[in-house]
Amino acid sequence: MTAQERVDAVADYGFTERQARFLVLVMRNAGLCVKRQYAAFAGIANGGEKCNAFFEKLISRRFAVAVECIHNRAQLYHVHHKPLYHAIDEADSRYRRTVSARSAAERLMRLDAALTCADLDWLTTRSEKVAYLEARAARASSEHRVALAGQEGPDLTNQFPGTFPIGVDPNGHVVLLYLATVPWTDDFRTFLLGHTALLSLTPAWTLRVVFPQPLRRAIGSYQRVVHEELESPLQEQTINDLKHYFFHRRRGTDLNAIPAGLRDLLNHRAETFAGPRFGHLYRRWLVNEDAAFKPNPPLIQEALASGRARVICVVLPHTYEHLSPLVSRRRARRRNRHTWEENGDETPHGVNPSLNPVP
What we know:
The protein is 48% helix and 11% strand. By secondary structure, the protein is of the alpha/beta class. The protein has three domains: 3-99 and 327-343, Arc Repressor Mutant, subunit A (Orthogonal Bundle); 121-233 and 295-315, no CATH class; 236-289, no CATH class. The strands form two sheets. It has a five-stranded mixed β-sheet with strand order 4-5-6-7-8, with helices on both faces. The protein has a three-stranded antiparallel β-sheet with strand order 1-3-2. Strand 5 and strand 6 (174-179) form a beta hairpin.
């Protein structure tokens, strides 16, 4: 199903094309939204007549429910209507389901991140991403025949970890979106390594790393990961030293029971290979052995060096703590029962408009 087909399907429910485009973004990236997000997307006043009318339509037609938040004037809107999700071919989307209070902020940040490039065609499911990668690989066989000579086809086994969307513009420029939610970077390393096949087959791409304000001091750590994983391949001698060190580390070699020369060498390598990059590599080596040392295709380095690829770090200007849902369990159960009866859904798990706090 194409992006325009999804918009047209939602518009058939009585929405303008602009409203339908926003709803498709919401349903495919978060399931939740607030008024300011639609106002920014549509270029209208937050809380103005047009903005309020849109959300009143969502509520009155039971396409969404409003959820009160800790801040007494803030409200979240949960788009849960099963026919709407069915219209975009995602009737079983996890975004229709209840979400914990701790996850609500992350979902809103995901939508804010997508709204920074709202005009792209977003690939949000793994099947879409795999199909796109396979199509690029087929085209690359002629486009980059010389550069890719001798390389195997993309291994899809470990591709596309996580659930972050991939955006594609009409010219084929690819945008990888990553939302940083923790100061440590292991998940980000896994994310980068799981997208190298796509990056090596894409002539022009942008890695867009989005940070909430509390994590803006972690930008340097994330930029360092990009440099290490995409721009600084390990040399052959370094790989040989790592294999030797990893072997003894896994074996649990007793340093007191080996010759002094080997003991000094292992201690030196333990100091040299300390740090997040090699810790992450060691964990991959335990699973994949020498395959963990497979270098990234040189096309990725070339794209970054030439400017055809770039890395952008964005700090979201909004705060989210005040948007934590404020719903009691008893009230949520009453509301759920009322909604199930009105919507006629076959299972209560399918539509749960409340955002229950984690006990």
